[in-house]
Amino acid sequence: MEILDVLVSAAFWTAVLRIATPYVLGTLGELLCERAGVLNLGIEGIMVLGAMAGWMAVYQGADLWAGVLVAMGCGALMGLLHACLTVPLGLSQHVAGIGVTLLGTSLSYFVYRLALPQASTPPTIVPFQPLDLPGPLAQTPLTYLAAVLVAVVAYVLYRTPVGLAVRMVGENPDAAEAQGLNVTAVRMGAVVAGSALMGLAGAFLTLSAFNAFFFNMVNGRGWICVALVVFASWRPGKALLGALLFAAFDAFQLRLQQMTGGVLPYQVFLMLPYLLSILALVLVARRAAYPRALMVPYRKGER
Question: Is the pTM of this model over 0.90?
Answer without folding.
Answer: yes
